[in-house]
Specification:
The structure is a homodimer.
Chain A: E1 3-7, H1 11-15, H2 17-22, E2 26-30, H3 36-45, E3 47-48, E4 53-54, E5 60-62, H4 67-71, E6 76-79, H5 86-92, E7 103-105, E8 110-112, E9 118-120, H6 121-128, E10 139-143, H7 148-152, E11 157-162, H8 166-176, E12 181-186, H9 189-216, H10 225-246, H11 256-266, H12 270-279, H13 284-290, H14 297-314, H15 324-334
Parallel strand pairs in A: 1-2, 1-6, 2-5, 6-7, 7-10, 11-12
Antiparallel strand pairs in A: 3-4, 8-9, 10-11
Helix pairs in contact in A: 5-6, 9-10, 9-11, 9-12, 9-14, 10-11, 14-15
Chain lengths: ~350, ~350
């Protein structure tokens, strides 16, 4: 049994308390500076305000100011921050990491470089760690379809742990596996992480179809799955293209990280809600107002990749016509356009 | 403008009346011997009893006995029969086909041969046509995500027409395309048709997860997408494996025919309903009783492919461990087992 410290008391970080506590580990859940309200609620009632569920017996909750204490002696560190917290995690938590203690992150995203190159968040984290730690810490990540509410309810969940060190991955699997939390391993960090990031952009895309149909008005038919399915398929195809560009393993487009994760995200809440509002014809500014205060990682990932693609195209590494859905989403998010799906540009095939 | 005869007045065959009539074609809708009640209803009220919608102006409806008249002068013939009607279509309608008049089918399925070889339904149809016609008729098929109700409501729908003759495909596209019915073309008949068939088996698989969770009882969480997503992903992976075995184009696992069609089928009605009943722990006999009278193509396709796989494995052409979900479904359908998902056997990767 090990001491595991989770940094970030958001929904997904917190949900990992369940398999870890069920396995008898000593679990420490530490808030970031943005989690003060959550931590206060956990201290007062042990109920997580977003999961609306009592955290398992034995989990100890720490405020951000107590992170040094929470991290002391940890044998595994979980990063539960969002993509907006990667810099903070690497620079602040990085000071307390110890050589040989692995990190595993639930964070989803890609970081675009000035020349358009897209790097994974484990790599982005590594580059920001204190220099002495950069080669001393194994940085791993979790991909695949997992809604935090369901993991906390011990629903059957199948995920992928990715990293570069097979021995570390095997140890992590042993630490986290339960009869309801099933873990597969992959050393293809790029492939898993590209899919984990892009599913947010494409779930927004599927949401556009839902919103468009609601806007079109009732005609006695409440169902509207044909257009959703077409956008789901276009999202899968664009994910494959991005795997080709980034050098991710092509098998990732046919298992948990690609279509599996996209499927679950379509049912996952705010990403699709934003897509629906945009699909109804709202501008992004109008939709953003209706979702004030919510973290929208889908906007961030779509914007970053859409910003990178022209640079990659100029370098001969990408073709813009392979990404009509992503670029349409970007025009809505960042260039004032309203939804107008470019059907004829879809499914551009060799 | 052309004369188009649709043979089979089921939901999907009938739904094609909308794009065809909107394009100004002369549309003849002919029932099979199993469609007598539907045809009677259409003659009396013009409302299709299953689509619950009035068919477009100008569509002429024929009884099975009038098929020779319905087919006289047709410039395109649509086969709207189910997989159980392929033999009837080839032998009976085959007598009235004319050289050079293409056929396009909505039928989904695969036919297993005694040695385990799986053939597509266009090929199975060809083998049953009157000998003189076998090389005279271009046999094409429609794949991709399309719920008939939605096409009849003119929802945005994206499909794939597949066949071996590019000129015929281009002509068919021109005949059927409307601003809401978007058509892509593929000469990879095997790839498109393998996905079109298998999505029924794997949508049943996704349904198992829904039923299992309902059976597990309420715990305050109505959502249950993590296990569905895992089975969706396993279905995608097994479809890819079957594409490898059958020589289908590998790109089909990332666009309309693979994940796109599986996505729509999960929302499509009886296939998932059967999966839910089995997921609740019913035996197939018990579930079948609750769905008496319904055509279950998902059972047929799962049974046929599961029957073929051991023969293909014996010939060194398949590995049984690549198909744990399909084989579990087969054990439920044909060997009296109850649901007990083999999680640890999933995602067997090279």
């Amino acid at each position: 049994m090990s001491i595991i410290t989770i940094v970030g008391a958001g929904m997904m970080g917190t949900a990992l308390c369940w398999p870890l506590a069920d396995n008898g580990h000593t679990v420490r859940l530490g808030g970031t500076p943005l989690d003060e309200e959550i931590v206060a609620s956990l201290h007062a009632t042990r109920i997580h305000p977003k999961l609306q569920r009592r955290i398992p017996e034995g989990v100890t909750v720490y405020r951000a100011a107590q992170l040094p204490e929470a991290l002391a002696g940890a044998e595994v560190v979980v990063s539960g921050v969002s993509s907006f917290g990667v810099d903070w995690f690497a620079r602040t938590v990085g000071e307390y990491l110890r050589p040989g203690v692995p990190v595993i992150a639930v964070t989803k995203g890609l970081e675009d470089q000035p020349d358009g190159t897209l790097i994974t968040l484990p790599e982005a984290t590594r580059r920001r760690l204190p220099p002495a730690m950069r080669e001393q810490v194994s940085l791993n990540a979790i991909g695949g379809p997992c809604i935090a509410h369901e993991l906390a309810a011990r629903r059957q969940t199948a995920v992928v742990f990715c990293g570069t060190d097979e021995a570390v991955l095997a140890r992590l699997r042993q630490t986290f596996t339960t009869p309801y939390y099933h873990i597969w391993l992959s050393t293809d960090v790029t492939g898993v992480e590209v899919c984990a990031a892009m599913k947010n952009a494409y779930a927004l895309g599927v949401g556009l179809a839902v919103g468009m149909m609601e806007q079109a008005g009732a005609d006695g038919l409440a169902r509207m799955y044909n257009p959703q399915a077409a956008l789901f398929a276009q999202g899968c195809l664009e994910m494959r293209r991005l795997l080709e560009i980034t050098g991710g393993g092509m098998e990732n487009d046919t298992w948990l990280p690609g279509p599996g994760d996209l499927y679950v995200t379509v049912f996952g809440g705010r990403t699709v809600r934003l897509g629906k509002l945009l699909g109804q014809g709202l501008s992004f500014a109008e939709a953003r107002q209706q979702m004030a205060g919510e973290t929208l990682e889908s906007v961030e990932i779509a914007t970053r990749v859409a910003r990178a693609l022209p640079k990659l195209a100029a370098r001969g590494l990408a073709k813009l016509e392979d990404f009509p859905l992503l670029l349409h989403i970007d025009r809505i998010l960042n260039h004032g356009e309203r939804v107008n799906l470019p059907w004829e540009a879809f499914f551009n095939r060799p």
